[in-house]
């Protein structure tokens, strides 16, 4: 039997027109289970949502989530019975008067059956509580036993550690004895080493004297080297001055060379310009020559045509002229034309 869902104290129902709740614990007597205690006030609080409000917002999600966690009761109530406890009976009478139900009176079962069923149910609950308490005590005793066992294990471990430490101390004492013997032997060796060091120090002092003498010689050589270095530096300065002068002359010569290069480039450019101008003039002269050559050929052709045509015309005119009737000017013109033709013929004749 479903008694509640999720975080609700009862069962929420979601419909097409809204949402409500109901309390199945009030119907447990009809299902055949005794009413041992009065229901809680929280379970009787009404829950009503109307219209589309039930299908939106937080309530809709909460109801959906509640139906994923359904809580049922049946076996937990143990004996099936329709009996009620006195506390439930008192609550029911108060509820009837408060709500104003139209019942005349509440029907009751036989007192003996009701008392037996209720007492049996209460006895079962007491036994269950006692059983839970015994289980709790058993768990506590079990934990104490485990603690005691752990303490005994720790004591055993400590005793083992103590014995190991004792053995370790014994071994350390033996090691210390061996170490002391080794220290004594090393002390003798150190004494011998000190004697050897003293003799070596004497030898080192002799070597130190020789090194000091060598240092003095090296200092003298160093002074000579410094003097030679100063001489080289002076010579280097002189050479640098000479080099600077030579560089100045070289720069001057280079500047003159640059000027000559610029002059040469300017002359080269001028020559190029003159050559371009001459080429342009040659092209123009060639064009003019070709033009005048064509004109000369045409003129020569006309002259040749004239030389061929003038004699015929002149002969025809001379045949027509009457010496007695023709004017003297016309005759003179014809003679001049004859002379001109003869002159042109002489000039055009090949050499």
From TrEMBL:
The lineage of its organism: Eukaryota, Viridiplantae, Streptophyta, Embryophyta, Tracheophyta. It comes from the Eukaryota. It holds the Pfam family DUF7745. Residues 124-151, 180-277 form a coiled coil. This is DUF7745 domain-containing protein. Keywords: Coiled coil. Residues 2-96 form the DUF7745 domain. InterPro entries: DUF7745.
